[in-house]
Design a protein that fits this description.
The chain is an alpha+beta fold. Helix content is 30%, strand content 30%. The strands form 2 sheets. Strands 2-1-5-6-7-8-9 form a 7-stranded mixed β-sheet, with helices on both faces. Strands 3-4 form a two-stranded antiparallel sheet. The longest helix is centred in the middle third of the chain and has 15 residues.
Length: 155
């Protein structure tokens, strides 16, 4: 079975090959990623870490990866995108990570945030997500729901 690290690496390379810039990445062993810590609301002080954030033009892909599809990743991203204090913390963390990015400087922030999941087995396909499926050979297939309406839909 393909590991979570293999899935994450395959998606990172796939995005780089298509001109995306990686601004946050959780390396094998669990180091790095994008840290989000809301400073108010019901999740004040909670710590969330995204596996990968990539930017291109005015889009920022916020991705969670697993070896097998896991609804908890979807629940985590849905919370970060919907709960107001979590979304504010997410936007701030992405803005800070992307501020060093050549791609983000070129387009001038703000970025359109896009939810994404990656996995090797199982299946989830929410309407407002980009879904990366990685084969055992490392090939990446991309699907997106009808609600994804930005550059990420062109992957």
């Amino acid at each position: 079975m393909i590991s979570e690290d293999d899935v994450l690496f395959a998606v990172k390379e796939f995005l780089l090959e298509r001109g995306w810039e990686i601004v946050a990445y959780r390396s094998p062993g669990g180091h790095g990623g994008l840290v989000i810590r809301p400073d108010s609301g019901p999740h004040e002080g909670d710590l969330f870490v995204l596996d990968l954030v990539a930017v291109k033009d005015k889009a920022a892909i916020c991705l969670e990866a697993k070896s097998a599809a896991d609804r908890r990743d979807q629940e985590k991203l849905d919370l970060l995108f919907s709960e107001p204090s979590c979304r504010a913390a997410l936007q701030s963390a992405v803005r800070n990570a992307a501020s060093e990015s050549e791609a983000a400087r070129a387009c001038r922030l703000p970025l359109s945030l896009v939810k994404a999941v990656a996995f090797a087995s199982g299946d989830i396909a929410p309407e407002d997500y980009v879904v990366f499926r990685v084969s055992p050979e490392g090939d990446v297939e991309v699907r997106h729901g009808a609600a994804v309406s930005c550059l990420a839909a062109e992957l």
